[in-house]
């Protein structure tokens, strides 16, 4: 099978497996996308987690354009496709986006609470904050995610960024797939540190929103 962007497909398969193995998403969902050139995006298929446990093959990934036309591949598009397209087409320096359900982030997601940045790995990005709630897989949700990044455009064009979709999951960005994945790991570490603080040092004040 002659697949386009084969090296990037291999990277995506590797990252998908890392997400599952490191509990950065779960069977309830997760998807991600990479802009490979203008008006061309590689995106994970629907049910990547529930049906595949994130164990993907290069041919499972779908090549699409900004209008959601499938140019290569036979699977069903992820239900979050619109969200990925808006970010990847609307920001010059966002080259990859990941939506996931990280284990230690989930309490913050479930109760719509921001994740304070408490490690050097997230300094300069501020808290991972919540967008207004919207029903999963809707146009409203996609536009709320876009608006969150658009309100922080200067920062989002310079650095990987993360945000919370209340009761649903997180969305992170990066200039490359590896940059977005790194951001996912970093906010998960911050989430764990904040949960540990609540148990071990409940009276310790939170840092300022840097």
The side-by-side strand order for the widest beta sheet comes to 4-3-2-1-5-7-6
**Structural class of the helix and strand makeup?**
alpha+beta
Could you give the order of the helices and strands? HEEEEHEHHHEEH
Q: Please tell me how large the radius of gyration is.
A: 16 Å
Count the DSSP helices: 6
Question: Which runs of at least 5 residues are low in confidence (pLDDT < 50)?
Answer: none
Describe, in plain words, how this protein is organized in 3D.
Helices cover about 35% and strands about 15% of the residues. Helix 2 packs parallel to helix 4. By secondary structure, the protein is an alpha+beta fold. The chain is globular. The chain has a 7-stranded antiparallel β-sheet with strand order 4-3-2-1-5-7-6, with helices on both faces.
Topology:
Elements: H1 6-21, E1 31-37, E2 40-43, E3 62-64, E4 70-72, H2 81-90, E5 96-100, H3 106-110, H4 139-150, H5 153-156, E6 162-165, E7 169-174, H6 177-200
Antiparallel strand pairs: 1-2, 1-5, 2-3, 3-4, 5-7, 6-7
Helix pairs in contact: 2-4
Task: Throw out a few tags for this protein.
single chain, alpha+beta, 210 residues, seven-stranded antiparallel sheet
């Amino acid at each position: 099978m002659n697949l386009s962007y084969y090296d990037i497909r291999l990277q995506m398969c590797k990252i998908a497996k890392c997400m599952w193995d490191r509990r950065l998403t779960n069977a309830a969902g997760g998807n991600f996308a990479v802009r490979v050139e203008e008006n061309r995006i590689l995106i994970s298929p629907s049910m990547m987690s529930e049906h595949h446990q994130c164990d993907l093959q290069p041919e499972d990934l779908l090549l699409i354009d900004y209008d959601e036309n499938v140019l290569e591949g036979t699977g069903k598009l992820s239900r979050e496709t619109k969200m990925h397209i808006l970010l990847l087409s609307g920001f010059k320096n966002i080259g990859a986006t990941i939506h996931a359900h990280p284990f230690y982030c989930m309490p913050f997601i479930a109760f719509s609470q921001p994740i304070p940045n408490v490690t050097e790995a997230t300094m300069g990005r501020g808290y991972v904050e919540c967008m207004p709630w919207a029903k999963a897989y809707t146009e409203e949700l996609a536009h709320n995610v876009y608006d969150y990044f658009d309100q922080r455009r200067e920062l989002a064009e310079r650095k990987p960024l993360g945000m919370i979709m209340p009761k649903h999951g997180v969305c992170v960005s990066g200039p490359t797939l590896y940059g977005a994945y790194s951001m996912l790991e970093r906010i998960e570490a911050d989430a764990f540190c904040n949960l540990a603080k609540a148990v071990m040092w409940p009276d310790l004040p939170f840092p300022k929103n840097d």
